[in-house]
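Record 1 of the preview.
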Amino acid sequence: MLGLALAGVAVTPSPAAAAGPAAHYLMTAFTNSSESNMYIYDSPNATNFTQIRANAYRPPSGLIRDPSVLRHTDGQYYIVYTTNWTGDTIGFARSPDLATWTFLRNVRVGLNGATGSTWAPEWFKDTDGSVHVVFSASTTGTAGQFRPYRITATDGALSAWTAPVALGIPANYIDSHIVKIGGTYHNFLKNETTKYIEHATATSLSGPWSFTGTGNWAGWGSGLEGPALTRLPDGRWRLYFDNYTAGRYYYADSSDLNSFGAKVELPGLSGTARHFTVLREDSGDGTALPSGARSLRSANFPDRYVRARDNAVFIDPLSASSPLADRRAATFTVVPGLANANCYSLESVTAPGSYLRHYSLRLRTQANDGSAVFRGDATFCGRAGPAGGGTVSLESYNYPGRYLRHYNYELRLDLRESGATFAGDASFTVTAPLA
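->
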């Protein structure tokens, strides 16, 4: 959402990049060092994860084992997690920005009060839009016979839930992770008796389930738990799992969820992260921005340009006759994205090494501190501008669904909205540099 004009000449962006949307992979985990704090990691390729938040969230009481993350329709991130080794609750928390988390509630879902165990809740969003949490429960504690159950949200705020419903899987299974492909539900789960990860399918979330992969069907061995799936950009699936008996973490890939390759140790985090989920998010549509020195002109206030002022960012009235210092403050060098080279970062020409980045959902210019958080905050992906006319929009790389837009002339990140106001506020013309 940058726009610069020199003598009123706009620069036409090159055609849309063939790469399409840029993916990144968000992981929420507890670690070997703490089952009371959640850590957050991010990866551009689902393989090499970098920590972006240590001790990101600590619940007011109890544990935060097995945190599962969902991006809801309100644009916020929700986690659900195991609250204790024994008991009958699961916990919920929410964040708009992965930095500030709010405890929402513990929901009582267990089967036998404090004498039972309620473990490994996992989000599952069905193709009809319904949101479920699948968890494992035993009536007799940690050594009991676990079965998978589900609860279903009855409101859009994810604050009200149905009573637990058995998934239809026999005892003794835990750690169900479900995805749906076409009309088939795929359930990867741990056989708690044999310690193998097995695979079951069904045409209904309530079953009946047929086991298509049992025992050592994939050749990964036993002593495994916590299966979690994500989809790769080439359409393949990646299944992560915790080899808890050896203290190592692995993944294996599949093109069809029926046959998988050999397990590969997860670099960097093997032996550190425990029982996590990985959320894939896509930013941009591949629309390209021209590189080099550019300015960004507002689509709905064409006399105003994106300009850094006192470390904040605004759209200000500017022209070729404006003072040179003002025009330089509205000139940025478009470079490959610091977090993903398929996207873009915007470096200040007045303060080389400083970039546009979002902070608390507001835009500012700041010197690159080399952190993964900064790289993500300073990376934006191109989309065709909703205002049309060759304009572009810049979608946040690490908060997909949020766009640079001006509000009271200040630049911030907002969720995409329908209507002409947002379309104009979030669309910019990339022009020749003002300075």
